[in-house]
Amino acid sequence: MIRSYEQLTLGKYEEIVALLKDQTLDDLQLQAEVIGILNDKTADEVLALPLEEYQMLAYAAKFLEEVPEPKPRCAKSYNLAYTTSEGKREELVLIPTCSARQMTTAQYIDFQNFNAQGDKVTETLSCLLVPLGKRYCEDYDPAEVQAAIRQSLPVLPALHLLAFFFESCARLTRATLISSWWALKAKRNKTESEKAELRKIRALLKGGAGPTQ
Question: Which of 38, 35, 12 is CA-nearest to residue 153?
Fold first, then answer.
C-alpha cells in the first residue's frame, strides 16, 4: 500500500483530487475509493475486506490529511518508466530545466499557460522535464513524458522540483528588477512615467535585499 507522498505518484494523486471534487460520493464511498487507489483495488474490493483490515488501511491513508511540505530541490536527472497504450514498458531519462534562463520561449509560454490553469501539474512539469539529449518538444512526444510523470514521479519530488524552479524564477525576477531600478535611478531628467516605474519597482523590492530609496 502507498503510505506517503514519497510513494504516491502524480497520476494517483490526480485521481484522488478528482474524487474529492465529486459531490455524489458519501464519506464511506469516498474513503473506499481512495483506499482502492492506494492499494490498486476497486472500491468494491475494498468494501469486501474484513473490517479490521479495512480499518488498518483507512488509518494508513491518513497521511493524505497532511499538507506536503516541498523543499526547493532539483535532481540532476529523473529516471521514470511508463506503460504505453500497447502495454509495453518504456523508460525515460528526463533532465530538469531548473531555471527560466535555460528555457526556450515556447517552453516558457507553455509552462506559464499550464501553470495558470492550476490543476495541470503533470503538464506543467512536462515543460520542465526534457528527455536526455533532446530539445524541448523536438524529436519526442510530450505525451510520453506526461505518461512517465503520471505513472512514476511521486508527489513530493515533483513539488520539490516546482519549488526549486519558482525560487529560481523569483531570484531572476529580483535581479532583473534591481538592474532596472539602478538604470532608471541613474538616468537624468526622468519622465513622469519613468518616475512612476521607479516607485513601482521600489514597492516590489521593499522588504528584501536591494535598493529601497
Answer: 12
Distances (CA, A) of 84 to 10, 51, 87, 95, 182: 17, 37, 5, 21, 53
Phi first, then psi: give them for residue 135, nearest 5 degrees: -95, 155
Question: 116: which 3 cell numbers?
Answer: 495558470
Q: How far apart are CA 69 and CA 88, in angstroms?
A: 34
* 190-194 long-range Cβ contacts below 8 angstroms, 24+ apart: none
Q: Cα separation of 197 and 191, whole Å? A: 10
Rounded Cα distance, 155 and 13, in Å: 7
User: What pTM does this model have?
Assistant: 0.73
Please state, as a whole number, how many other Cβ atoms lie within 10 Å of the Cβ of residue 35: 21
β-pairing, 89-96 vs 78-83, is antiparallel
Q: Which amino acid is at 176?
A: T
pLDDT, tens digit, 9 for 90 and up, residues 172-205 = 444 444 444 445 555 566 677 766 765 665 665 5
Cell numbers for 65? 490529511
Residue with cell 519558482: 166
